[in-house]
Protein 1
Amino acid sequence: MVLDRIGSSVFTELIRAFNVHGTQVEEVWSLDTLEDLKPIYGLIFLFKWQGGNDSSRLHPDADLSIDENVYFAKQVIHNACATQAILSILLNCPMINLGTDLESFKDFTKEFDPDNKGLAMSNSELIRGVHNSFARSDPFMMDSSGSSSSEKEDIFHFISYVPIQGALYELDGLSAGPVNLGPCTEDNWLEKVRPVIEERMARYTSSEIRFNLLALIKNRDEVYRTRIQEIEGRLHHANDTNNSLELMQLRDEREDLLRQIEFERIKFKRYERENSLRKHNFIPFIYNMIRILAERGELQARIEYARKETTKRIRERRRE
């Protein structure tokens, strides 16, 4: 899983493709900002994979028993750790409306063991179709070893953190089981998960800084509109009591929320475009462009120009 392939836009569109509504994914730039994103249903942590560092080995003393309240599936799909990571949260959050298709899949497979849950995911037409729609060049294929297809390419892995029935779980499809990290509540689970993520980061050398943390949260548009409705009620009361200061503060907050709603609309439009471009196959276009330049006798000159420009930029960067 290459680092720059998966971000909040892809995860958000993945959720929509599963017909799950009322949620979205946001990138977390700092652990200090988690409180600003509440309610958070779960976190997804992306890190560089190193052989043998699955969750069960990193937490040798943790409880790996299969709790009936935890939906845990083994990863049997070679390059679908991102898809499995988001499913690990969706299928373990009763507050989320999964929609008919995903709810039916969960009900059908809930009594399966982790291996058969993983196999069911690989054979689900819904999950297979959604995964493949975001994997232009990567086939949806089985791989029992969990290894990469290329030793030279950096491999990145996704795991999930979810509060389930009063306990914090680390869900890693390559692990021997769901890792119970101890008791938590809906109010303090973010405090509990923070040192766990920090410890994950600390295991790497100072030269490895490629991490990414994403949060599955309630749809911001819904959150903002609900708050606007609350403000409208308070505005009526403030107007009746002629409280000018409160009126001004509430109106300012309402305007700010309306701007945030517009920002979300623009952001989702950008997501649609990004994912459209991401899934589009540009190889035929590039091939034909190179072929036409060659037929015109212009290709070699373009190559020389590009080489000179590249050398020039390298020199300029060295001088900075």
Protein 2
Amino acid sequence: MKHKLLLSALLVGAVCSAHADPLASWNDTAAKKSIEEWVQNATNKDRSTFIPPEKRYVVFDNDGTLWPEAPLTFQLQFAVDEVKRLAPEHPEWKTDPVVTAVLNNDLKAVAESGQKGLMRLLELTHSGITTEEFDQRVSSWMDAKKDPRFGCRYDQLGYQPMRELLDYLRKNGFKTWIVSGGGIDFMRVVSQKMYGIPPEQVIGSFALSDFTLTDNGTELRKNMKGAFYDDATSKPVAIHLFMGQRPVAAFGNSDGDLAMMQYTAANPDYKTFGLLVHHTDGEREYAYDSHPSASGKLIEGLTLAPQKGWTVVDMKQDWKQVFDPKLCPVKN
């Protein structure tokens, strides 16, 4: 009798495991159903909507799509913390307005400095060092720093519903890429660990590096030469450069992602999919669209989405939880 009960329990467990919801952090709303319907149509050989596995390339923005971007993007917060750490060694920085804003904790002024201010902070903290040294600085920062609001490390703040979506797509034969305005070297440090996306499938903003022979071998030293900002209309350019083919699905959260989504939607061979994450949950995360604290403005996208048939995710209504409670036990 005991053996029969054990066998029954094992069978029930196996059945439950086989039918486990791969998108368990999503509410059963139209957004979740649209994802599942598209994937089913794209992977069914008997349907006209079938997409061959070698063409199943899908692209994700990062800031605001896979992890938070408020009140500052994580990379900008890293640059701010690096300026504070390095400033005592560089007294000449104190005459720089954006450095002064950082040292005075005037994050509003930092955000308002725009792309020019951002590039200056990147110049001070992302150049003049080897690629290995930069990777180590990012890793050390990720290990030591915590988000002041959520009290968790930044690498623990990937959106759980989006991480499930990445896994779901990969299990159905899709190749997942990041295409973001964030720095390519910065994201590559954590992309595998956080999202299961290898470094070679990360596309982002970048600058050229200097190669030199050294007594110990070779090194690449980061600088700001040939800087390429991977946002807005630059995203399709970068996709073509790094991927060499047009995606079949695109996931973003701001008007800066629209060119990538339009480029994807214009794929002449397959029925594509587009999704925008709308930040509507000020209690569990942040609520903004037309007036973000730093980046992620979403105005035109909300108008285009119904016209293009794109899915808009209402974070408050469509997600059961925002972060993985095992990694970041905040209110979900």
Protein 3
Amino acid sequence: MTKIIFMGTPAFAATVLKGILADSHYEVLAVVTQPDRAVGRKKVIQTTPVKEVALAYDLPVYQPEKLSGSSEMEAIMSLGADGIVTAAFGQFLPTRLLHSVDFAVNVHASLLPKYRGGAPIHYALINGDERAGVTIMEMVKEMDAGDMIAADSIAIEETDNVGTLFEKLAVVGRDLLLSSLPAYLAGNLRPVAQDPSQVTFSPNIQPEEEVLDWSKTARQLFNQVRGMYPWPVAHTYWKGERFKIQEAVAVEGEGPAGQVISRNKKELIVATGQGALSLLTVQPAGKPKMTVADFLNGAGRDLAVGDRFGE
């Protein structure tokens, strides 16, 4: 039985962890995840999805703020693991830690060398890619730069957003890891180096990238909205305050970019640089997320054709 230390944080990683725990070929000695964080306006302490799985299986949990030089890393190295599996962990692994085990592999949610970094699923949607995938790669002390062990992909559907694609790719990653790891550990699956000329990056989304530029095409804005939902959520401005748009669809229409060109009790259509965007789910400042119909019948009842967003 191969003894593993698992490192991961979000629901994507939790799905991978559950798959490993269900496979009798592996024993998970411990789980390493990011520290619990205070979230929301009420600053409620929230455990990570990976920690929740670990606790359900009575696994030891380590949550160092930073692995390098920590007492947690020393404790992890003393466990006698054969290898490390990571999935969306959120920290670099020190070289000393990597050298302390026989193998260290990562489940990365992109088709490397495309989209190295922390937001590959967001970028696949924002850029309008037709497919998204997962790569199993060897860990090195450089972001997502290790040799590739295996890869698989799925089509991106029109209805996909970050949340749905995360769920789908978590299953792809789980199954790909479990199908490729035995052959890799047996020396029958030879890793392939990444082509440096094809490397692109997907850094974490910055606040300024969340703002909708109405001069872009309707298709670009549709991709931006779904590429940021359910987090961090794209937004524009209305009455000088932030106005979040969680869901929208591209439709026909024309007018000055950002201008409301159609409005009734259930529909709100805004012109873009090319085409128009029909808003479906929104969140005005200080209000909860709501359907556009609820917005138009409430906080947005005075919104009229000719009004502009983004000002």
